[in-house]
Specification:
By secondary structure, the chain is of the alpha/beta class. About 40% of the residues lie in helices and about 15% in strands. The strands form three sheets. Strands 2-5-6-7-8-9 form a six-stranded parallel sheet, sandwiched between helices. α7 runs parallel beside α10. The protein is globular, with a radius of gyration of 19 Å. The protein starts with a strand and ends in a 13-residue tail after the last helix. The C terminus is likely disordered.
């Protein structure tokens, strides 16, 4: 890792990322794509050491609280967060300022900050989001080698649900010829229902590949799934969207099973939910 001083932190839609790069090693990672212009080695994570100060200044300047979001480009709970505690410092600022937060991760390290996330949820709103891709433990290790497995993530989801924090699962990517099976989808949906998941976000069934990310993905396929890269090249060429041949059937299963389990799966509606901060209940004694 190396340290950098950021010029700004919050995006126009109130998102922020504390790190740039990743060590999870997920073979399908879109953040490796050349369009994001990460000029250092991807695993040599850039740490925005002045992020807490930038965040505090940005929140002080806002006229009213709103929902913030983190984790879209880089996981806020990389292993180095154990020592750096940069994410935790930002959570403390968010809690002190009375803002809401949605956080996306693949790591059970988020459980360390349970009490802060509960405080944010008590004052405003907190939503914990986790990415799940496969029920199979061995396949999970091949696709996402340096992060906790699916079962551990589900344990974290159950813990946050029990604490009264809403949870959302990002069910993506569903990789053609790897995890795009009915058995995998049904197992994940049943597990989400058991864990009390509020909603599931999908972007169709398949994977998107861009320059930079595609090359890394294909090298990983050659190393771990010999011959599969050739099938991708034949079927998809240099296409950005690589849709699973099982997409229509999987979409039908998703809609039907989510309805049966009472899980939201309207992606646009869930994104709106992530941006909505509930109106504060004003007590009669607030003005005294």
């Amino acid at each position: 890792m190396h340290f950098v001083d950021a010029k700004a932190l919050l995006s126009a839609r109130n998102g922020f990322n504390l790190y740039r790069g990743c060590t999870h090693g997920c073979i399908y990672c879109d953040s490796r794509s050349a369009c994001y212009r990460i000029e250092h080695a991807f695993e040599d994570v850039a740490v925005k050491r002045n992020a807490p100060e930038l965040l505090d200044a940005a929140l002080r300047a806002k006229r009213r609280p709103c929902m913030l979001g983190t984790g879209s480009m880089c996981d806020p709970y990389l292993p180095l967060e154990k020592e750096l505690r940069l994410t935790r410092r930002c959570l403390e600022i968010i809690a002190n300022r009375g803002f809401g937060l949605s956080v996306l991760t693949k790591s059970d390290l988020i459980l360390r900050d349970m009490e802060l996330l509960c405080e944010i949820n008590r004052q405003a709103k907190c939503v914990v989001q986790m990415t799940l891709t496969t029920w199979d433990a061995a396949l999970c290790g091949a696709l996402e080698p340096n992060v906790c497995n699916t079962q551990r993530r589900l344990e974290a989801l159950r813990a946050f649900h029990a604490a009264g924090i809403a949870t959302i699962v990002w069910l993506c990517p569903i990789l053609p010829f790897l995890n795009d099976t009915e058995e995998n989808l049904r197992a994940l949906l049943a597990a989400c229902a058991e864990a009390g998941v509020y909603g599931i976000i999908t972007f169709g069934f398949g994977v998107t590949l861009r320059e930079g990310g595609r090359e890394y993905f294909y090298r990983a396929l050659d190393a771990r799934f010999p011959g599969l890269k050739d099938e991708y090249v034949r079927r998809y060429g240099n296409a950005y969207v690589c849709e699973s041949p099982n997409s229509a059937r999987l979409t039908e299963i998703l809609r039907r099973d989510c309805a049966r389990y009472g899980i939201r799966c309207d992606t646009d509606g869930l994104f709106a939910y992530l941006r909505e901060l509930p109106a504060r209940q004003v007590s009669l004694f607030d003005s005294i």
